[in-house]
Fold these 2 entries.
Entry 1:
Amino acid sequence: MSDHDPGSQDELYAELLERAQILVELDAPQIEAWTSGVFVALDDDEAALGFVAHTARTVSPVSAAVLAALAYLADGEVAHAARTATDRMASVAPEPVAAL
């Protein structure tokens, strides 16, 4: 379980999503590399699932790219949650989802 309080986790998720704005300028390998770095900031599956949920609530091409990359790179419950959210985002931002 993460040792961060919920408020600081929400701040972390918001900061990561804000920094993800660059993803719309990157190609698929660069998106994958950026997203791999996100796992360093998320110290466990609970935090990763929280980030997936936070990102899924923000419907945009950036959040779609983040979710698609997480679905591709993660495993287990995190990958499943990200895939489910990516499927819902595909109609909003098909290009980032298709790129991965």
Entry 2:
Amino acid sequence: MFIKSDVNFKSEVLKKDWSLFELMGVERYITEALKESKFNVTFEELQTAITTHNDYAMLNVLDGRKVIIDGFKLDHFALKGNNDLIAIFEDENENIKTYYVEGV
């Protein structure tokens, strides 16, 4: 489901806002990807909320403890300008790892 990426928040163009159509598509995309993943979690269990950050819009994950990779928990999702979906993981020291969300 997650493919390590080299996204750098300082140099990448991430969308500053999402249309309702984009939000619904992202939710469906994540739902289907989770069904095919090794994580035993549904989209609803992640408890998400769309918010706008100073630099970009994001789908925050309120319960990322269910999706952990190498000690990094799922924090939020963002869309690149080309509509690639990025998953952002953080560790307890707020270090970040980014992953592309693989299509199903």
